Amino acid sequence: MKIIGITGGVGAGKTQILEYLNNKYGATICQTDKVAKKLQKKGGACYETIISHFGEEILDEKGELNRSLLADIVFQDQKEREILNAIVHPAVKEEVRKKIAQEERRHTNLFIIESALLIEDNYDGICDELWYIYVKDDIRKKRLVFSRGYDAKKVDDIIAAQLPKDEFLRYCDRVIDNSGVFAETMMQLDRIIKDI
Fold first, then answer.
1. Which residues pair with 30 in a beta bridge?
2. Percentage helix, strand, coil, to 5, in the chain?
3. Which of 14, 35, 139, 176 has the fewest C-beta atoms lying within 10 Å of its C-beta?
4. May I ask the CATH architecture of the domain 34-108?
5. Cβ atoms < 10 Å from Cβ of 105
6. Can you give the residue ranges of every domain in the chain?
7. Burial class of residue 115 in the structure, from the number of CB atoms within 10 Å of its CB (0-12 exposed, 13-18 middle, 19+ buried)
8. Domain 1-27+110-196 listed as CATH 3.10.20.80
9. SS (H, E, C) 15-77
């Protein structure tokens, strides 16, 4: 089984790439964001620890984490972001390892881990290759404003909290340029899949 890590800044179009790899090549997709959300739900492995640090004021009326409130706190304060990451990321990685073991038993050919923090969380130790999805900053900003309705300041805060392009390039084995039309991206992906 090939284990590929896919990363890139917010607004790089990773979701569309994952859908393509799943539909065309039957890749099993594991998005660390979704794993993290599950672990942060009431009863999840991270829920109590997050509340004990951030306080009950980050809960909504149903007793679940108010994710946008928590995001506002951690994107504006690096120390708080580091604390949240230290709670969530080790639990996510453990869950990812369990999923890999399950997929190996199923004889899956291609397992893809998608994470914005693939490099920071040292997923290179788990993955056979790391792929960086690159998109020019101005295109990413437009996509985020258009598709997610974020304002310019929120987009700038999120981008500032992520690794710069040269860090991605330093650690990743392959670069997929997703700045143009998706047909070009599909051709790049087809070439890479043939190669591996």
1. 113
2. 60, 15, 30
3. 139
4. 3-Layer(aba) Sandwich (3.40)
5. 8
6. 1-27+110-196, 34-108
7. buried
8. no
9. HHHHHHHHHHHCCEEEEHHHHHHHHHCCCCCCHHHHHHHHCHHHECCCCCECHHHHHHHHHHC
pTM for this one? 0.88
The distance from CA 169 to its chain's CA centroid, rounded to whole angstroms, is 17
Q: Provide the token pair at 18.
A: 């994952």
Distance between CA atoms of 47 and 42, rounded to whole angstroms?
A: 6
Can you tell me the distance from the alpha carbon of 86 to that of 155, in angstroms, rounded to the nearest whole number? 24
**Amino acid identity, position 63:** G
**Same CATH topology for 1-27+110-196 and 34-108?**
yes
Helix orientation angle between 67-76 and 152-160, rounded to the nearest 10 degrees:
60
Encoded tokens for 24 = 């065309």
* pLDDT tens digits along 76-116: 898 999 999 999 999 999 999 999 999 999 999 999 999 98
Whether 133 and 8 have beta carbons less than 8 Å apart is answered as: yes
